[in-house]
Description:
Strand content: 15-25%
Structural class: alpha+beta
Number of strands: 16
Number of domains: 3
Shape: elongated
Number of helices: 16
Radius of gyration: 30 Å
Largest sheet: 9 strands, mixed
Distance between the termini: 77 Å
Helix content: 25-40%
Amino acid sequence: MSSSASVAPSAEVISRYEPVIGLEVHVQLSTATKIFCGCPTSFGAPPNTNVCPVCLGHPGALPVLNRAAVELAILGALSLNCQVRAHSRFARKNYFYPDLPKGYQISQYDEPLAEHGFVDIVVDGAARRIGVTRVHMEDDAGKSVHDGFKDSDRYSYVDLNRSGTPLIEIVSEPDMRSSEEAYAYLTEMKQVLQFMEVSTCDMEKGHLRCDANVSVRLKGAEKFGTKAEVKNLNSFRFLKQALDFEIVRQIALIESGGRVVQETRLYNPDLDETFTMRSKEDAHDYRYFPEPDLVPLRIGDEWLAEVRAAMPELPSRKRARFVELGLREYDAEVLTQTRAASEYFEVAAGVSGDAKTTANWVMGDLMGTLKGEGKEIGDSPVRPEHLGELVKLIAAGELSGKLAKEIFPKMFATGDAPTVIIEREGLKQISDSGALEKIIADVIAGNPKQVEQYKGGKTTVINFLVGQAMKATRGQANVTVVTELFKQKLG
């Protein structure tokens, strides 16, 4: 607990209050170039090399809007169930900071790109709908890098490579009532935006950053309390921890007779507490006015329809459809974590005709092997058609499960189809009863004790005998045929 509220309230006191949470999420769009110039957006370039007069804010340099950024922003807004405005306008958001070379940020203010959306979440089995107030476009600032710990040797550097990269800011309604709901909301949003390939949402690279507005009020009260903003939360875990701390801090302040002040705070994960950064700036402090160097953005019905027609299926709809195919809720969730995984599964299942078994192979053997090799599913040497073919061969009785487990690593190593490997290495399943007769006879002769047990009524022993036959044929015997032959010989 911070010094301003050193005594933590009891669980009973905390239970009398309700937190009110809204999130502001900044997402970098997956364009090749910046929003208002042709500089690359690639991550990791040497400092101040991906820059030009426009993103350096040189006098007379004029911005030109990137069409691809607009289309990704529209796609992101539609995927969050927002209404895209036919007319929106860019504005100048004026403030001074060393990594903001223009002295202002080009953003959108009272005429944003899109409004009135929502994100559906499930927490502890309860469904909740979180409103999205607006989605607007803006350019990013640069990055300040601080070096040294003592004032005498402390230096700050500015890297403007990130300056001018295209962002959308997604502002939620204050609809979340717990840190768990905020965590679920951000998780669902990240998955949707990654799935739609609007952004990589790589938090380590700063492609997704989150600010949280949080206040508390007594349960049943209608009026919101005074909110504090916790900025620059760069992980899901830190978001939840910061909110949990801030909720308790505010309750402790109120219970001790103090009051919450409107301010911007930062979260220190080492101490697991928030601390004051600055007093909160209101919107008018930024002195917004229309950007004079950009015409209003008009999105006609035809353009909007083109973007909507190119939209892939949302992950929530895929999950529901996969469950209808017979998959468990958990399996459907795993297979829709990424667009690449869901598309791989659909192709493989389309070939095999067995969605459930295919899902098991994708989530088990394939993903396990990929993880061991440090590969993503998009880089899989095993094509989805080939995995579907493998599952189909098992279902048709042309391949045993054991033999399939031997063939799969060979598919991963070579990229070959299962039929090619079977033919090349002579691994075809043995289903001819004539070819199996001698093996069956040898197993019966070599296991007299188990044969007597079977004849004495212990029929489960047949599984042992079948296993011996499978071992003798290196798993190539048809299990069904072998079982029937044993029953005939021992009947």
